[in-house]
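Researcher: Here's a chain I'd like modeled. Treat it as a single chain, no partners, no ligands.
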Amino acid sequence: MGLDYRRYLVVDEKLFRPAEVNILMGDPQKARLALNWKHEVRFEELVHEMVEGDLRWYAREAAY
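Model: Modeled as a single isolated chain. Structure tokens:
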């Protein structure tokens, strides 16, 4: 369309949120107690699955 989005876009910085948080921590104690839940995947396996998932996603995106 040949339009410059900057002429039409209004940014409200009050609505910004940090892109990254400094510390991410979780405590499964509540799920363990309420649901009798126990993790089945070790942390290292979880990280591996997450990285593999990201790599698959990026490979699909690159195909477009």
